[in-house]
Structures are given as structure tokens and as C-alpha cells.
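Session log. Operator J.P. requested a structure for one protein chain; no other inputs attached. Running the standard single-chain path with C-alpha cell output.
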Amino acid sequence: MNRLKSLGKNLLRFIAFLSIGIFLLFLALRNIDLTQLWNDIANARFSYVLISMILGYLAFMSRGIRWNYLLEPMGYKVPVWKAIHSISIGYLANAAMPRAGEIIRCTVLHQASKIPVNRLVGTVVAERVIDMMMLGLSLMLSLLFNVNKLRAFYAKTLKSNPPESTAGHFSNGWYYLLSFVAFVFVLMILKKHWINLPFVNKIRGLWSGFKEGILSVVSTPKRIPFILHTLFIWICYYLMVHIVIYALPGTVHLSPVDSLFIMIVAGLGMLVPSPAGIGSYHYAVVTGMGILGVSPDTGMAFATLVHSGQFVMTLVAGFISLIGMYAFRGSKALLSESELKG
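Structure written below.
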């Protein structure tokens, strides 16, 4: 019954995320000439798309190597291919259910290496912190060259209603502050009653693993290789966007600085929880391309080429990794059985 309930909840979540993606895809396509879009894609130079796909997989491989650097300070060492396969399977899961990939990749590597899941999740949290820092640094770098373009992108996509009055913000601030103080005060009074509850002990165990994973970034003896792999991953992200501008006549004039701007807005689009970034990626890129003076048809063709190339790469890498991990588990089971017979 619980399993059925969980399945229903996941299905509803998937439908909700997919609805977001479909809505944003509609917004991206509403001013598009589909005939011209098809012609642009059909006449594209797909060799550049292939290079983009290879760069995407190189980023997967670098992530697998980098993951090992976070595991070593905790006393774990896994074959690099297992880490890369786990990451590929995680990205495959993300294509179906946004944000599920991080847990899936930890579960897969746990099954293959018996490393506790909470420690693996801690390293993934550390990776996400690093990734957000790199996105922030990329955004700051882009601001040096593209501040007006980013302001225009904000105005077109993220601008909300005018803020409330200062008095309203002031009263709301005091309300939240007093509520927080009251909450902490109640927790302190009831501490001896809840401190040893089973779910609190479980949270404490999870936090211990998270903390160890995050601290592994600082304690890893391979700080320089870790930093170099982080830079390599983000250079791959940049190049897999930049290289595709040469695939279309309508984008070949764009500069490396323009590619950085498109990488940033595409990354912001991927933050929206739609399956595989469908819709959110396209909407963000078409909007960004429009700011650069590229027609909506060509912008959509560019977004489709980059996104489809990475999506196909993720599917191929993910399914190959599934087969590889399944074969490993099968051979391990056969080995254990032969040892028992012996």
C-alpha cells in the first residue's frame, strides 16, 4: 500500500514538472515558424553537435574522477568506472524525474561499493555547493561583459510585480523574527523530550554523513587535482555551448562572450524542475538569443541542437552504465556462489 502511495506521489510530481516544461516550451514556440525551424535543424553541421556531446561525456568522466577525491579522505576508494557509471545513471534518472539523480547515483554506488548512503549524499551536497559557486563565478564573469544583456534577460523572464511598501516589509520581518525566536525557545524547553527520539537520531546520523562529505572538500589531499577537474568540468559546459554556434549560419557570428551569456541563461533555465530541462532550457536560450539579436527560429534551432545532443548522450551513457553495473553485480553474484561451492 505504501509502495503504491509512493508511486502515485512520484507520478503526480512527474506530471507537475512535465506541465511546467510543456508550458515553457509553448512559450518558446509561440513565435516560431516551424518550417523554418526544421530547415535550420536539417541544414545544421552536426559534426559540431557531436563534439558538444563528447564534451558533455568528458564532463561526466571528470565528475567521476573528482567524486573519488571526496571519498578518499573518508577512507573509501572505488574504481573510477563505477563512479562514472553511477553519475551517468544519475543523470539518466534526472531526465525522468528532476532532482532524483543525486539520490539515485548515491544508491547505485552504495550497492556497488557498500559505502554508506549518507556519506555519499554528503559528498554530493558538497559537489552541489561547489557547482553553485562556479555558476556564481561564471555569472560574475558574465556581468563584466554582459551586464546589460543579463538585465534584459531578467526583465523578460524573472521580473515580478512591484515590491510592497517598506512598512509591510518591516512588519513581516518582525513577524518572522519573533516566530523564529519563539520556535527556538520551545525547542530548548522540550529538548530533553525530543533529543532521543528515533527520527531525531536518524536525522543526526544523516547530518553526520552530510557534514563529513562537505568537510571532505577541505580535507582531500588532492586539492589541486580537485580544483583542476572542477575547472575542466565548467570549461566543458562552456565549450559544449560555444561549439554549436558554428553549426548554424545564423549564430556563427556570435562571440565567445555571447556564448558565456548563453551558458549562464541556459544554466538558469536548467534550475527550473522540468524533466531533462525540456521547455525551461529552450525558453531560456531562445530568450537569450533574442537579446543577442538572433531570430526566434534560429534561437530555437540552436537550443534544440544543444539540448537534444546532450539528451541523447545522457540516454546512451546512462543505458550503457546500467548494463555495465548490472553485469558487474551479476558477475559478483556468480563469484560469490562459486566461492561458497568451493
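Operator note: Confidence is low (pLDDT under 50) at residues 160-175, 333-342.
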